[in-house]
Amino acid sequence: MSTAPLLASAPHKKIALPVRVEPKVFFANERTFLSWMSFSVLLGTLAVGLLNFSHDQIGFGSAIAFTVVAVAVMIYAVRMYHWRANEIRKRGSGGFDDRFGPTFLAMMLIIAVVINLVLRLTHDIKGKEK
Question: pTM value?
Answer without folding.
Answer: 0.75
